[in-house]
Amino acid sequence: MRGWGIQRFNVYIPSSLEDALKVLSEKGSEVTLLAGGTDVLVLARTNIVKLKLVLDLWPLRKELSYVKKEDGYIKIGALTTIDEIYNSFLTKDRRYYGFHDLYWNFGTPYLRNLATAGGNIGTAHPLSDLSILLLTLGAEVKLTSISGERWVPLEKMFLDIRRLNRRPDEMITEIRFRETPENSSTALMKLDRRKGHAMGYIVTAAYMALEGDTIANVRIAFDSTGKPYPGRAYKTEEFLRGKELSLETIREAYNVLEKEMTRISDYRAPAEYRVDLSKVLMKRCLLLIKSRIEGGV
Amino acid sequence: MAGSETVIQEYPDIAIRLNVNGRDYVVTVKPYERLIDVLRYKLGFTSVKEGCGRGECGACVVLMDGKLVPSCLVLAIRANGSKIVTLEGLAPEGKLHAIQKAFLDTLGVQCGFCFPGVIIATKYLLDRVSDPSDEDIKNYLEGQLCRCGSYLRFIKAVKLAVKYIKEGKIYFDLKEVKG
Ligand SMILES: Cc1cc2nc3c(=O)[nH]c(=O)nc-3n(C[C@H](O)[C@H](O)[C@H](O)COP(=O)(O)OP(=O)(O)OC[C@H]3O[C@@H](n4cnc5c(N)ncnc54)[C@H](O)[C@@H]3O)c2cc1C
Ligand code: FES
Ligand code: FES
After folding, report:
1. Segments in chain B below pLDDT 50
2. Does the Cβ of A111 fall within 6 Å of ligand 1?
3. Which of A65, B17, B124, B167 stands the most exposed, by the fewest C-beta atoms within 10 Å?
4. pLDDT tens for residues B114-124?
5. What's the gap in Å between A40 CA and the centre of ligand 3?
6. Which of A48, A111, A191 to mutate to test the pocket of ligand 1 (most atoms within 8 A of CB)?
7. Which chain B residue is nearest to residue A109, measuring alpha carbons?
8. Residue A194 in contact with partner chain B when CB distance is under 8 A
9. What is the ipTM of this complex?
């Protein structure tokens, strides 16, 4: 429908989280959750998704929009926007400078004001920058329903492209990860023909902790490592752990990455090029993290 | 009644309250209506353009409670109770805002379709960064697509707007504007 509305659908405006969970438990299978809408309203506009009953999560922002430190965890409310994450303490702490990269690589200023953390995971789409960064922090996702809550590791949340590991009566309410050690940092990089407003041929993020020159811990995630959703390069991580960080080591890790990663070819880039870019961005991320640990930006 | 099933009425008319450019409105909308359609077709703020309808071009951006948002991706009911600013509200009747004047002076605009969005995005920028660098301007205007390719002129225009504002010239009489 051009110019007037998107499709016809009803919207339930909940008065509280409890109210929202009640509606989800009663009508879960016909409900579409609406957070920022930057994904779901675009899919509706192009008729890829048919909306019937929309549950507007925006009113829950009074309960579910926050970034806080608690019990050794960093906790992010599901309805926190990319803009709010950027304006939180995370981007002032050099361990979490990856959130700086996230902000400047993410869509456009007007999208960052709507797009939420929960919605980014909810898309279950390869090009979900926040999900890719959160994978490197070993994040867990809290799924809440009227009958209780459970924590699921982020890497277990994706079943297929646009298929989330969630029961119809559940919603994401929080994302958390353990506070990382002092000698660690994060980075995220995207490569495309232009810098602004870009999807990225590939997206790479990494977390690394150094002890001297030794890689004490490392996690590396990509928009895809084979499946059509964000994933980690476990074997490459394992290879790197305990080794001395050097260009030599990283070059050796290329061989491991190449074996564990399968990339697709499409009109944007051939698979071979994507694998090459993945290696290069992995290198750049690790070197940037090293410099961040040492005091750089 | 506890335990009773939630009843949802089919496509009800919903009255929402909006403050647009300083004036209060009560409008009746459907649950699926977008803010852009309400602004354009129900309230007549036709500066709000639909370029893509999918969050990619920035032609439809407005300030909603001070935040830049694409009105094509905001349901009208979500705007209930908020303050909206569109291009029409930047300057009092018969005047132009320094940003508008600067874009005209630098011929920053060609066909003009992207122009309202670019100006609102510039307002958002200057509300946050009073003396932006080229880098700041590029970062804040990166989502404002211009089919005519006026991008380099945008940078000139924003700098001129900053100069006017620094000189205390916020509003210009229409008579002072050439063309
Ligand atoms: C022009 C454009 C550029 C973009 N650029 C980027 C980019 O650079 N990087 C990037 O990562 N993304 C990008 N996106 C995609 C999108 O903006 C992000 O994925 C965003 O984080 C989605 O969040 P949202 O709150 O808008 O989600 P919504 O659209 O509201 O929801 C997305 C999905 O998640 C589900 N969902 C929402 N909230 C919850 C919840 N709490 N629990 C369970 N499920 C939930 C919804 O039902 C829906 O299926 C772009 C989109 C557009 C239109
Ligand atoms: S019309 Fe809204 S962003 Fe293009
Ligand atoms: S001036 Fe024509 S689209 Fe920008």
Report:
1. 1-2
2. yes
3. B167
4. 999 999 999 99
5. 28
6. A111
7. B140
8. no
9. 0.94
Q: What's chain A's average pLDDT? A: 95
User: Domain containing A279 — which CATH number?
Assistant: 3.30.390.50
Which structure tokens are listed for B163?
A: 């100069």
> Are residues A4 and B11, on separate chains, in Cβ contact within 8 Å?
no
- Pair A214, A240 in one domain: yes
pLDDT for B142: 94
Nearest Cα of chain A lies from the Cα of B121 at a distance, in angstroms, of: 9
Helix axes of B151-166 and B98-105: crossing angle, nearest 10 degrees? 130
Asked whether residue B2 is assigned to any structural domain, the reply reads: no
Q: Do A242 and A214 form a contact (C-beta atoms < 8 A)?
A: yes
Residues B106 and B76 in one domain: no
pTM of the prediction?
Answer: 0.96
HSE value, Cβ hemisphere, 13 Å, CA-based, for B81: 2
Question: Same domain, yes or no, for A260 and A232?
Answer: yes
Task: Report yes or no: A86 at the B interface, CB cutoff 8 Å.
Answer: no
Mutation for A interface: B6, B48, B56, B71, most A CBs within 10 A: B6
Domains identified in chain A, total number = 3
Buried b (16+ CB within 10 A) or exposed e, A148-184: eeeeeebbebbeeebebebeebbbbbbbbbebbeeeb
Q: Does B78 touch chain A (CB under 8 A)?
A: yes
Q: Using CB atoms, which residue from B5, B67, B138 is nearest to A196?
A: B138
Q: What CATH number is attached to the domain comprising B51?
A: 3.10.20.30
CA A128–ligand 1 middle distance (angstroms): 8
| Coil, strand or helix at A285 | helix
The CATH number of the domain holding residue A44 is: 3.30.43.10
B32 with A7: Cβ contact below 8 A: yes
A52 and A65 share one domain: no
Alpha-carbon distance values, A79 to A35, A85, A137, A221, B131 (Å) = 7, 10, 19, 23, 32
